[in-house]
# Entry
Amino acid sequence: GHRRYGMHDLLRRYARDHAAADPADDAQQALERLLDYYQHVACTADRYLAHRTWQPAPPPPAAQPASAPDLPGPAAALAWMRAERASLLACIDSAAEHGQPKRLIALTAVMAGFLGQEGPWPQAAALHQGAVAAARRLGDRLGEADGLFELGLIRHLTGNYPAAARLYEQTLAICREIGHLPGEANTLWSLGHIRALTGDYPAAADLLEQALASCQDIGDRLGEVNSLLDLGRVRAATGDYPAAARLLEQSMAIYQDIGHRVGEASASHNLGRVRAATGDYPAATRLHEQALAVYQDVGYRLGEANALCGLGNVRAMTRDYPAAARLLEQSMAICRDIGHRLGEANASHNLGRVRSLTGEWPTAAGLLEQSVALFRDVGDQQGEAEALNATGVLLAASADPQEALAAHRQGLHLARQIRSPLDEAPGA
# Structure
């Protein structure tokens, strides 16, 4: 590619033989310069890609390289990370092989934002587990907290919410033990997000309000706006649409002010869902399309899948079922490709409803059954309740009313457990 080179196998072997003949000290210095270069540039890139608002484990200083690429924004940072992925992973392997735990922890930390966005998530989990083990051997509590937090995020992304919650709770305990306020605030937010995803809205609201207060106390604007966004999601999930809209509009304005495009897109997507729920379909369409454009521009595939799903739902609400089906199929394909089970469950559920509305009952039944299983597997009780109610509607129209009644009763039971009146109403 442009400004990159490769070697013929024989030339590579010739160069390697000559390098092996160099004095050991010269070879070690050259390797350290190479590792410093990658750590320095990856740290620069991570400032644009990191999802957390804290850096609990400052990396050991890396020497300023003689030359480094200019990374003026997220697109350039992402492109550099994609091009250098194999080399960065080789650097981590080298640090492990040569007994450099501090270097291993630092290199893994500066790849965290990229790995969370791009995956593959099993590889990311293995790297974070290695960083946690290295930090524990060193007695580096900050490094351990950082690794546990990142591992929790990967479990979150792969839909293992119980494991994510346990890892965030461990992170929170360490941050409180060592008095690391930014880490405590960020972890409160992450744990609140998990509680919301599993339908425990009272606990989610409490954690997010704690996170919001902590972020405001320490002047962490990104942490503050992340907490506002998730509080908006909780208010929407419990049917308080006016409060949800106010919080989401507030979060969108702050994201715009600090230049955080992905956050702005997320607020736009979630506000689109609120507008759709209150019947303002033109505004919902506009907001989802804005979010989709940003996600596609920055290469954030999970966000793209979410925006496609939201837009598909609006098309279904306005009875444009062919367009709705196409958008939801695209969303489901992306979620399957990146391994995001919750996104797949949402897309499958909504596509099942569209197929039900167009009279494709066997296909609809299969999609809804799949979504119920996925929601149950990841522990999303609100999603499961909604899918069970959709199954009840389908069965009432196409099969035995008694089976429909059983599905609605299951949905009603779950809705009452999580105190979700919106999901309780169809079952009742």
